[in-house]
Amino acid sequence: MLNYRAIVNILSAMLVFLAASLLFPAAVAWFYQDGDLNAFLYTIGLTFVTGISGYFLTRNNGEIRARDGFLIVSFSWILFSLLGALPFVFSGHIPSYTDAFFETMSGFTTTGASILTNIEGLPHGLLFWRSFTHWLGGMGIILLSLAILPLLGVGGMQLFKAEVPGPTPDKLTPRIKHTAELLWVVYLFITIVETVLLKIAGMNWFDAACHTFGTMATGGFSTKNASVGQFQNPWIDYIIVIFMIIAGTNFALHYRMLRGKLNVYKHDREAMFFISVIAVASLIIGMDVWQRNGHHIATAAQHSIFQVVSIVTTTGYGTADYEQWSGLSQLILLLLMFAGGCAGSTGGGIKMIRIMILFKFGFNELKRLLHPQAVLPVRIGNSVIPREIVTNISGFFLFYMALFILGVLIMAALGLDLITAIGSVTATISNIGPGLGGVGPTDNYALIPTTGKWVLSFLMLVGRLELFTVLILFSPSFWKK
Amino acid sequence: MLNYRAIVNILSAMLVFLAASLLFPAAVAWFYQDGDLNAFLYTIGLTFVTGISGYFLTRNNGEIRARDGFLIVSFSWILFSLLGALPFVFSGHIPSYTDAFFETMSGFTTTGASILTNIEGLPHGLLFWRSFTHWLGGMGIILLSLAILPLLGVGGMQLFKAEVPGPTPDKLTPRIKHTAELLWVVYLFITIVETVLLKIAGMNWFDAACHTFGTMATGGFSTKNASVGQFQNPWIDYIIVIFMIIAGTNFALHYRMLRGKLNVYKHDREAMFFISVIAVASLIIGMDVWQRNGHHIATAAQHSIFQVVSIVTTTGYGTADYEQWSGLSQLILLLLMFAGGCAGSTGGGIKMIRIMILFKFGFNELKRLLHPQAVLPVRIGNSVIPREIVTNISGFFLFYMALFILGVLIMAALGLDLITAIGSVTATISNIGPGLGGVGPTDNYALIPTTGKWVLSFLMLVGRLELFTVLILFSPSFWKK
Question: Which residues of chain B does A67 touch, with a Cβ-Cβ cutoff of 8 Å?
Answer without folding.
Answer: 370
